């Protein structure tokens, strides 16, 4: 962590630092942003006793990030070395502060002059956190995210945490698996609805975390594990439900076998992501075809890598969830389960190929040395 400190000077008439913007107060937003940049601490320079007491009370209830220091002083207090002056009623993005030279006074990314600016500030923050359609997927970008945004706005200034939102998505996933296991067209249709709605709720936790600057490694893991657990549970539930409805006991076997294959495929992927300190997201798994090799002749990703990336654009999680939900709603669960089993079978083969290729590349590099 650097020696740089942020300095917030509050003047009489400024918008209070206790004002809620995007699910957290201005004071805590400054602290979380400065902490993420790697600064040592934040000094609140406040002569107004009422405002200073209110800000101190905020940090007593919601402490600053671990290792980040906060001080509350009057204007006569001498300045620290390596201080960066920030405007209190303003929003600074992480990238803005990261690019600063020491002892500079950055221009705010968004300034708030009055209470009416809060709504515009939140719209500004929403625009910053929105993923591109390439990263999010077409259905998530145009359908699921806008729907989830309604719930995010309702929960933003409440005490509901991102992890609690994640657990609500898990409840939908478990409910979908139970309904699929009960069997019957009505319960299977309900399973499809719950599975898709769980995907919508899954968008909320990330938005809450990014708006409030509350993201954590635990939350990242929980988010991904809930996604995978919901899918694996649904595979098992569909197999049980098909067997209960008289389609043959082998469907139950396929359901359990498919769940086992899914777990054995996903476990090493997540372990590798953790080992490489990459985002805990299988969509960002570093596949062998995403690395340049001596045999590639048409770009850094090669023909195979580009082809897989293009296909992946159409089979992202949002498309998978929607397709599965529609098949279940129309009681085409055998087709749905077959597709899911086939997808994990292909993924497992691809994973074995990946580690085989990477091992060969490692051997070739060792021989070259």
How would you describe what is shown here?
- The protein is an alpha/beta fold and 369 residues long.
- It folds into 2 domains: 5-121; 131-368, CDP-alcohol phosphotransferase transmembrane (TM) domain (Four Helix Bundle (Hemerythrin (Met), subunit A)).
- It is 62% helix and 8% strand.
- The strands form 3 sheets. Strands 5-4-1-6 form a 4-stranded parallel sheet. The chain has a two-stranded antiparallel ribbon with strand order 2-3. The chain has a two-stranded antiparallel sheet with strand order 7-8.
- Helix 2 links the parallel strand 4 and strand 5 (69-73).
- The relative contact order is 0.08.
- Residues 291-300 have low confidence and may be disordered.
Q: Which tags fit this structure?
A:
369 residues, Four Helix Bundle (Hemerythrin (Met), subunit A), four-stranded parallel beta sheet, 62% helix, elongated
């Amino acid at each position: 962590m650097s020696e740089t400190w942020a300095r917030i000077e509050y003047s009489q008439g400024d918008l209070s630092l206790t004002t809620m913007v995007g699910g957290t107060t201005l004071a805590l937003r400054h602290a979380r942003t400065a902490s993420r940049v790697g600064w040592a601490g934040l000094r609140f320079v406040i002569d107004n006793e009422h405002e200073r007491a209110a800000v101190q009370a905020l940090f007593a209830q919601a402490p600053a990030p671990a290792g980040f220091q906060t001080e509350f002083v009057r204007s006569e207090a001498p300045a620290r070395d390596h201080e960066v002056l920030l405007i209190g009623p303003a929003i600074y993005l992480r990238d803005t502060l990261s690019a600063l030279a020491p002892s500079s006074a950055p221009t705010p990314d968004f300034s708030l002059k009055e209470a009416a600016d809060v709504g515009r500030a939140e719209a500004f923050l929403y625009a910053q956190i929105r993923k591109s359609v390439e990263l999010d997927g077409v259905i998530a970008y145009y359908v699921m995210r806008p729907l989830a945004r309604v719930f995010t706005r309702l929960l933003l200034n409440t005490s509901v945490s991102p992890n609690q939102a994640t657990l609500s998505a898990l409840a939908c996933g478990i409910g979908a698996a139970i309904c699929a296991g009960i069997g019957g067209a009505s319960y299977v249709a309900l399973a499809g609805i719950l599975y898709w709605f769980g995907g919508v709720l899954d968008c909320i936790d990330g938005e809450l975390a990014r708006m409030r600057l509350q993201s954590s490694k635990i939350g990242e893991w929980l988010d991904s594990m809930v996604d995978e657990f919901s899918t694996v549970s649904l595979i098992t539930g569909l197999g049980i439900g098909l067997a209960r409805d008289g389609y043959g006991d082998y469907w139950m076997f396929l359901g359990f076998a498919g769940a086992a294959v899914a777990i054995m495929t996903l476990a090493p992927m997540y372990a590798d992501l953790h080992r490489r300190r990459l985002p805990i997201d299988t969509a960002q798994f570093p596949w062998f075809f995403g690395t340049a090799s001596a045999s590639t002749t048409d770009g850094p990703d090669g023909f195979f890598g580009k082809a897989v990336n293009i296909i992946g654009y159409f089979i992202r999680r949002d498309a998978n969830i929607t397709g599965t939900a529609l098949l279940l709603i129309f009681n085409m669960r055998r087709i749905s389960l077959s597709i899911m089993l086939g997808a994990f079978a292909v993924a497992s083969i691809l994973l074995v190929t990946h580690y085989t290729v990477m091992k060969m590349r490692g051997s070739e590099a060792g021989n070259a040395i």
